[in-house]
Amino acid sequence: MFSKRKDTPQIDPVQRELYEHARKRVVQKKRLFQHFIVFLVGVLFLLIFDFLIGFGKEITFFGLNWSVVAVICWAFLFVLHFCNVWLFHKFMGTDWTSRQMERLIAKQKAEIELIQKDVDKMYPKDELLKKKEDFIIQGQSKTTQEVVTPVKKQKQNITMIAAAGENDALGKDNDLVWHLPNDFKRFKQLTTGHHIIMGRKTFESFPKPLPNRVHVVITRNPEYKPEGVIVVHSMDEALEIAKDDPQPFIIGGGEIYKIGLEYADSIELTRVHGRFEADAFFPEIDPGLWILENKELHSADDRHEYGFTYLTYRKK
Q1: How far apart are the C-alpha atoms of 166 and 311, rounded to whole Å?
Q2: Cβ(297)–Cβ(272) below 8 Å
Q3: Is pTM beyond 0.70 here?
Q4: Residue 299 pLDDT more than 70?
Q5: Of 132, 240, 265, 285, which has the maximum CB count within 10 A?
Q6: Could you tell me which residues come within 8 angstroms of residue 237 by beta carbon, excluding any fewer than 6 positions away?
Q7: In what order do the strands lie in the sheet with 266-272?
């Protein structure tokens, strides 16, 4: 008795696929040949029944003898089978499929390169490497307990960021009433890597937590505990959570902006040029307390229905 070898080599997946494809092609060609033989024999019998025996001479279709119609139908099926096995395989076989896959892969690579360029613009490599080096240095300092010269802590800049219409409209039914892609992009660039402080309704307007930001949600509800956020019950608590962030952002909504106005050091306001019906409004900016430091106008275009201006205010 011979035992089975346990080290039988496995068939390579590519070879298996080629084998299966070849096997299917052999079966198709075999069936086509059988069809051809049946077709020839069938035509011969039809002619014998019709012309030699005279069977069914009185039967006609559209003025044609029944045997002629039968031969035409059978020939049509045979040609259809032939095209499926030979012509379709020749013009849309494995080579055609491979070319289509290569085109799709090339297109996906091009899209990935465009996305990578956007990522490089938003997250410059030099800055990421510097942050990584700073993180490593801090970790080594904590581990070895080295005595270093204290670094003066940078003053925290608490910033309110918002987009509001000419009538200070923020939105309606917990949603914006305009679509400004460039403003969304600017919001992402400014807030990424920072704490963002908001009310419960503002957080619930997001489909999911925004990436690369620490979400701090202010609510009066002690039972409110969504995943992926830090829940607090006052602005003081929220700023205590963000005390190590050099620039935490207060992002809304209307009531949170009113409270945050007292705490904020700066305001990044996108003034949308239009008056809108709304149920939430940005608080009035007192020119006696705030100074306009920067102003950047953007006109309406095919991607922006409304013109808008970036305004940067600093507290006096």
Answers
A1: 13
A2: no
A3: no
A4: yes
A5: 285
A6: 218
A7: 230-232, 214-218, 195-199, 249-252, 159-165, 266-272, 308-315, 290-298
Residues 201-255 have pLDDT tens digits of 999 999 899 999 999 999 999 999 998 899 999 999 999 999 999 999 999 999 9
Rounded to an integer, what distance in angstroms lies between the CA atom of residue 170 and that of residue 176? 7
Going from the C-alpha of 142 to that of each of 130, 137, 150, 269, 280, the distances in angstroms are 18, 9, 13, 40, 47
Residue 123: exposure state from Cβ atoms within 10 A (0-12, 13-18, ≥19): middle
258-263 CB contacts, 8 Å cutoff, 24+ apart: 258/283, 259/235, 260/158, 260/160, 260/197, 260/235, 261/160, 263/158, 263/235, 263/239
pLDDT at residue 315 is higher than 50 = yes
| Beta-ladder partners of 217 | 198, 231
Residue 242: what are its φ and ψ, rounded to 5°? -95, 20
User: What pLDDT was estimated at residue 72?
Assistant: 74
